[in-house]
Amino acid sequence: MIESLLVANRGEIARRVIRTARRLGVRTVAVYSDADADLPFVREADMAVPIGSANPAQSYRNGQLVLNAAKSTKAQAIHPGYGFLSENAEFAEAVTANGLIWVGPPASAIAAMGDKIQARNLMADAGVPVAPGTREPAPDATTAREMAEAIGYPIMLKAAAGGGGMGMAVAADASELAAEYEKVRAFAERMFGSGDVLLERYFPTVRHIEVQILGLADGSVVALGERECSVQRRNQKVVEESPSPALDDQQRRDLLAAAVRAGQAVGYRNAGTVECLFDPASGNSYFMEMNTRLQVEHPVTEAVFGLDLVEEQLRIASGLAPTFGAVPPAPRGHAIELRINAEDPRRFLPGPGAVTAWVEPEGDGVRVDSGYAAGTTVTPHYDSLMAKLIVSGATRDEAIERAKAAVAAFEIVGPKHNLPFLAEVLEFPEFVSGAYDTGLVGRMRPAKRR
C-alpha cells in the first residue's frame, strides 16, 4: 500500500480522501490556497502546504506548485480528487515522470476521453452505442447546417473539449443552429482553448444515467452499478440515486456491459465513470462521455455496494487486488445523494458567506461529506458545493423518507443554501414516482425559471 499521499484538492473531497487514507495508515499531505487556510481539510491532514493565492490558476490548477509540494513533503503519491488537475493528462504524465504514483487512470486514457469527438469515435468503434451525430467537428456554420440536416433536428451542439455541463446548446431548426453554433464555438475557444464543436441528436425527453467502473491492477475492468443523475439545473447535477428507477434488468445488464467495453477500449485503470443518455421512449442508452476520475456522486455507489471507492483507488494505484476479490459484491438497498450548494434556492445563483451555524443530521442510513463547518467561510473563488448528504435505505421509498428528515434536520446559517429546493424535490410527485427526466427542475418551477 502507498505510504504517503498528497491530496491535490480542497473542501469536501479532500476531507473524504484524507479520511480513508488515515484509516489505512497512509500519511496525508494537504495543499491549500490562501482562501482555504481555515477549512477543516487543512487541519485534518498530517501535513499542510500553502501553494498560492485564491485564484485556482495560481494554486490548485498549478501543476508545478503541486509537484513541488509533493517533493518537499516526500509524498509518494498524488490523489487529484475531482475538478482542477484531475483530468489533466499532462499533469498525470508529469506526476509519473517525477517518480510519483498517480492515483488515477493512465494519461493516455485521460487524453483519449478529454475530447468529446475523439471519445465518441473510440466508443463507436468499440461497439459502445452512441447517439446519431458527427465523427468530425463542424468547421463552420454552413457545414454544421449540412451535418444537422443529415442527423435530424433537434440538434445538441457541444464544445468538444468541454465538460461539467458547459459549452452546450440546443437548436430546433436551421436558423437557431446558425446562431447557437457561433455562440458555442466562441465560448469553447474562450473557456477550453479549442473551438471544435460536436453535433448530436438531441432527445427532448431523456434521462442521464452513468456507470461506475474500476480498471483493476490486473488489467481487467468491472462495473459497479449505475447512478441516476437526471435531477439537474443548468445541466449540472444536484440529486443522484442508485439504482436507477428507469432501468429494467436487461437494460441494466446491457448498460453495464457497454461501460465495461468502454473502459477496456482505452486500457482503463482506477476509478472512472461512463456517462450515458437513456431514451425512455426506445429503452436505448447512448454513450455521452467518460469522466476519468472519481465522481462527486461516488458515495451512492459506496452505499449500495458496501465499498470504499477511495480505498479501491489506492489499492489499484499500489498494484494490489481490490478488497472484493475476483467478483464485485451485489448491490443492496437504495441510496440518494443531495448536493448542498451555497446558492439561492430559487434562481440557483451563488451565495457565498461566513458560516455562523452548521449542524449536520444524524441517524440510520445518513452520511454527510462536508467541506465546511461553523466559523469557516464559503468564498466566491470556487465551486458552490458545501456538502453532500447521502441517505440510504432498504428501499427507494425508505431512502426518500430518510432524506426528507435529514434535509429538515440540516442547519446552515450564513451563506445562502439550496436545502429548501432539495426538500421540494423530495416531495415532488414526479420525483417520488421515479418516472422523471432531465426536465424535472423546469417542470417543478417553470415560472421561476423564465
TrEMBL record:
Short name of any one Pfam family annotated for the protein: Biotin_carb_N
EC number: 6.3.4.14
Keywords: ATP-binding, Biotin, Ligase, Nucleotide-binding
Single Gene Ontology MF annotation: biotin carboxylase activity
Database matches in InterPro entries: ATP-grasp (IPR011761), BC-like_N (IPR005481), Biotin_carboxylase_complex (IPR050856), Biotin_carboxylation_dom (IPR011764), Biotin_COase_C (IPR005482), CPAse_ATP-bd (IPR005479), PreATP-grasp_dom_sf (IPR016185), Rudment_hybrid_motif (IPR011054)
Top enzyme category: ligase
Superkingdom per UniProt: Bacteria
Segments forming domain Biotin carboxylation: 1-446
Domain ATP-grasp: 120-318
Name of this chain's protein: biotin carboxylase
Protein source organism: Virgisporangium aurantiacum
